[in-house]
Amino acid sequence: MSKKIISVNFDKPNAHRLSVYEELGGYRSLTKLFAMNPADVIEEVKKSGLRGRGGAGFSAGMKWSFVPKDIGKPKYLCVNADEGEPGTFKDRKILVLDPHALIEGIVICSFAVGIHTAYVYVRGEYDTPIKKLQAAIDEAYAKGYLGSNIRGSGFDLDVYVHRGAGAYICGEETGLIESLEGKKGQPRPKPPYPAVIGLFGCPTVVNNVETLSALPFILNNGWEAYAALGTERSKGTMLFSISGMVERPGVYEEAFGVNLWEFIERSTGGVKGRRGLKAVIPGGSSSPILTAEEARSVSLDYESIAAAGSMIGSGAIIVLSEDNCVVKALQVISRFYAHESCGQCPPCREGTYWLTRLAERMEKGEGHPGDLDLILDICPNMMGTTVCVLSDAMALPARSYVQKFRDEFERHIKEKRCPFSRARNNVAVG
Amino acid sequence: MEHDKTFAFDEKNEKSFQDTLKKYPKKMAALLPTLWLAMGQNGYLTDEILEYVAERLDLSPVHVYAVAEFYTMFHEEPVGVYHLELCRNLSCTLCGSEDLVAHLAEKYGIFPDETTGDGMFSLELVECLGSCGTAPAMRVNDVYCENLTVEKLDRIIQGCRSGVEPEEEPMGVH
Q: Phi, psi at residue A109, to the nearest 5°?
């Protein structure tokens, strides 16, 4: 049994209600918080080793420390609840089952950085999570955990929910800021980073829901308790969204450093129907694929997954069984990136579209012998050539699919059909 | 351009609009929430409504058009009484969402990007809904329908036909 920090209340009935949350020890950290010097709070979070759980894995405390102090402008917190990385469904759990933990985290972050206005940008499809979060915010205001002079501390904070409208790119932090400002969610060139020039031209912290939800534990138990979990460089725990061909898909919390496949097997019961394992996508659709052998040997922490040529990303693990087709998987994800490309950078706008066409024709049995080399030629031109990393997020997995499962792609071309497709001819999809 | 004055927020939405404006230091930031309010009132966004929104927020109509166009959830055409958004992304595809698309077409004549002749159903194949652990998944209007099977889909469609919107199941611990 792994230590539960973020999911500790998931099985407690009605933890989304303030009274229950308080009984479970909720908002206890604020007494300690308001007695601290804000700079010490940042230091505490830095020492805990907490890293951003939205995908980038950057030190949360470090990110906060980049915000300039006393420059006469307001500062903002944007909470990234635009959860859109395919395979990821953990923030939705937090918003529905334990929204007050997020609010408590928002208060901690805001106090540390000197923020008095926070916006929670929730993806537009999350109707129930938005309602649960708004109800929790209303309760928190009523009980004085938000608003002016929070619990007599003299600290003021307003929190607003902002609903997105269906654009994956708004999960990119500068795309999110543009969107919140009332524009198309097209990412900005960096630098300047949001910490210096962010929302409304002011210093801004953008943090993921899960990152903020870990803060009450760190405040209550001290940085040492958090840093004691995990590995030397990947500290603490993370919520892993496990989906695809497993017996019991779901969100499972685990401390870093366990064996990837053992963790998947232990939590979910392994591959559905006792079929063979083909591959594991470890960190959302943007992460390069791992073969069964790699998944069985790699340790689940930022450094080990990176050394294996992939990334932990948002912790979205997708399992493919021996019956699944890697070409089909490429077709599905390339179509996704082509759909979600914001269109401002040609390598992304064109590259994602070319890859989709190539994957689609191979899956239909209409691939050409040169298609694989064409994919491998296109991918490097999509990497490091654009404003944001959406393009890289398509190119990296595409290249890995072809490199690691080249035989499977070649079979599609040679046999002029998908060797995995069933007899049924589906109606045109997409 | 002066818009034609037939669309205006009703009393409730006018109040919500005024409350929304208070949340942001700049009016433009209220654009997405205002578009949501307008779509909630009318069902979809017409040119006239976009111009109304532009005027209310002191924005150029072209900016409002461009933003409305950018986000997939803002509709510029009417949708059916039941808007089905079925996920076509990876985990849902692995768990059989393409079979559901085929079933909707074969059994009910509901096709992607179309509205049925009786105006009851529109089907949109959408990208990841954040419901991968309960795949395949679909939204019916604002309601998540998860762990779909052909049988469950039949129950949902038949329910809708008799005017019963599906209910969201409580979220599981994992």
A: -60, -45
- On whether residue B61 sits in a domain, the answer given is yes
Alpha-carbon distance of B5 to B48, in angstroms, equals 8
CB A332 within 8 A of CB A360: no
- The domain spanning residue B27 has which CATH number? 1.10.10
If residue A252 lies in a helix (H) or strand (E), which one and from where to where?
Answer: strand A250-255
Tally of residues, chain B: 174
CATH of A18-227 given 2.60.120.260, 3.30.590.10, 3.40.50.11540, 1.10.3660.10: 3.40.50.11540
The percentage of residues in chain A with a pLDDT greater than 90, rounded to a whole number, is: 96
CA–CA min distance A221, chain B (Å): 24
Q: Are strands B138-140 and B143-145 parallel, antiparallel or unpaired?
A: antiparallel
d(CA A40, nearest CA chain B) in Å: 30
Burial, A74: exposed, middle or buried (Cβ in 10 Å; 0-12, 13-18, 19+)? middle
How far apart are the C-alpha atoms of A174 and A199, rounded to whole Å?
9
- For the stretch A7-64, pLDDT in tens is 999 999 999 999 999 999 999 999 999 999 999 999 999 999 999 999 999 999 999 9
Contact A248, B134 (CB under 8 A): no
Which of B70, B72, B93 lies closest to A332 in CB terms? B93
Chain A residue with Cα closest to B167: A128
The alpha-carbon gap from B9 to the nearest alpha carbon of chain A, in Å, equals 19
User: Could you tell me if B67 lies within 8 Å of chain A, comparing CB atoms?
Assistant: yes
Are B133 and A164 within 8 A, CB to CB?
no
Neighbours of B152 (CB within 10 A): 16
Closest chain B residue by Cα to residue A320: B94
* Residue A118 phi, psi (nearest 5): -125, 140
Burial call A227-263: b when 16+ CB within 10 Å, e when fewer: bebbbeebbbbbbbbbbbbbeebbbbbbbbbbbbbeb
Could A163 and B36 be called an inter-chain contact, meaning their C-beta atoms sit closer than 8 Å? yes
Query: Would the pTM of this model clear 0.90, i.e. be above it?
Result: yes
Structure tokens at A32: 């300690």
Q: Domain range for residue B31?
A: 11-70
CA R_g for chain A: 22
Q: Which of A181, A250, A424 sits opposite B102 (nearest CB)?
A: A424
With CA atoms as reference, the chain A residue closest to B96 would be: A244
Q: Which among A83, A128, A285 has CB closest to B90?
A: A285
Name the pairing type of β-strands B114-115 and A158-163. Answer: unpaired
User: For the segment B61-110, what is each residue's pLDDT rounded down to a tens digit?
Assistant: 999 999 999 999 999 999 999 999 999 999 999 999 999 999 999 999 99
Contact A168 B134 (CB under 8 A): no
